[in-house]
Amino acid sequence: MRIRHPLRTFVLAVASFATLLAFAVPALAVDWRSWDDGLARAKSGKRYVVVDVYTDWCGWCRRMEADVYARRDVSEYLASKFVAVKLNAESGELVHLGERSMSARSLASQFRVTGYPTTIFLTPDGERLANLPGYVPADKFLLMLHYIGDGHMDRGEKWEDFVAAQPKAN
Questions:
Q1: Cα separation of 7 and 97, whole Å?
Q2: Spatial distance between the Cα atoms of 75 and 80, rounded to a whole number of angstroms
């Protein structure tokens, strides 16, 4: 007959509970804004803007939402440094850029979006910094967020130099 060790049972119970808790805690959801609301918030809060340009039929757009934006480190960093905006590139919804009114479709075209998803980075005043076309894996996307959000781009640091300076994962 095997005698159970109370400490071993306790440790296993705590470890099991901690594992269940880790999976039960949902990722911080991205606080997506409409175009007009997002740009107004960015300007008043002096925060950069991330624009997720998508279409309803785009499978890679859904995957970006599930794999990248749903990650806790991505959503937390977005919340700390950016205003997040969703823009349906096929929508006729009326949006404003400066004094001009146009459809979301026209706005996407004006920003030279030719594929989906495309992520557009804007200054707090709504000026385009960069377009990042296609699905981008979460680690690379988070690196881009830090490059812009931490001011490396503003200081004129080249992307290649920024990437080269990052610690290598083992």
A1: 64
A2: 9
